[in-house]
């Protein structure tokens, strides 16, 4: 007869129920992860596991996070609902402006911006973004250009000797722009 018993799972693999895992995750969210008694405190919260089992479960979770962050595990394609879109739009509107600020432009990005400005002219932000500053969107390039021109204008208005070495901003007929090392 071919009645075989399923092989028992290795002893070191302990199954966690949904409820046990939720207790574990909530404890991690509430407790200080730097606490040397972390695993003991989690076991006191009642997931029904030994300190060693909790420690192994934590290490497996850390390994999973590393795999996800390194790109080794693909995230599932989440389906966005109309409700999700509305909540997302509402949440975005309520974020304070100082949190919406993106990373500052690097000197290399600014140099590429100036080259793109020279090649494509003022106003062609999409081409500058696509072909020169590929790390920035056309909107970011336009915003950077606006700040760049405002700064150039302010420097031209100052009667200092330093401003005379600055290039004038390109006019609508001229597309030339000189690199400015002081504006990243």
- Supply Rg: 28 Å
CATH topology of the domain at 107-165: Arc Repressor Mutant, subunit A
Overall shape: it is: elongated
Average per-residue pLDDT, rounded, comes to 76
The CATH architecture of the domain at 107-165 would be Orthogonal Bundle
- Termini separation comes to 78 Å
For the largest beta-sheet, the strand count, sense and barrel status come to: none
In DSSP terms (H or I, runs of 4 or more residues), the helix count works out at 7
CATH class of the domain at 107-165 equals Mainly Alpha
Order of helices and strands: HHHHHHH
Number of strands: 0
Helical content (DSSP H or I, runs of 4+): 40-55%
Structural class: mainly alpha
Description:
With 184 residues, the chain is mostly helical. It has helices spanning 18-30, 38-44, 51-69, 82-93, 107-120, 125-132, 138-157. Among the domains are: 18-69, Orthogonal Bundle (Arc Repressor Mutant, subunit A); 107-165, Arc Repressor Mutant, subunit A. The chain has 7 helices and no strands. The N and C termini lie far apart (78 Å).
């Amino acid at each position: 007869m071919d009645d075989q018993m399923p092989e028992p799972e290795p002893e070191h693999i302990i199954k966690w129920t949904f409820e046990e895992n939720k207790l574990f995750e909530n404890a991690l969210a509430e407790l200080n992860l730097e606490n040397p008694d972390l695993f003991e405190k989690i076991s006191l919260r009642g997931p029904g596991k030994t300190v060693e089992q909790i420690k192994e479960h934590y290490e497996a979770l850390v390994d999973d996070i590393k795999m996800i962050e390194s790109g080794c595990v693909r995230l599932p394609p989440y389906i966005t609902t109309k409700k999700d879109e509305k909540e997302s739009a509402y949440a975005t509107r309520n974020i304070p402006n100082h949190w919406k600020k993106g990373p500052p432009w690097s000197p290399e990005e600014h140099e590429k911006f100036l080259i793109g400005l020279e090649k494509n002219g003022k106003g062609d932000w999409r081409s500058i973004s696509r072909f020169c500053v590929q790390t920035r969107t056309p909107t970011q390039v336009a915003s950077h250009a606006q700040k760049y021109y405002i700064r150039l204008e302010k420097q031209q208005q100052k009667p200092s000797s330093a401003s005379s070495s600055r290039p004038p901003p390109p006019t609508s007929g001229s597309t030339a722009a000189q690199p400015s090392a002081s504006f990243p």
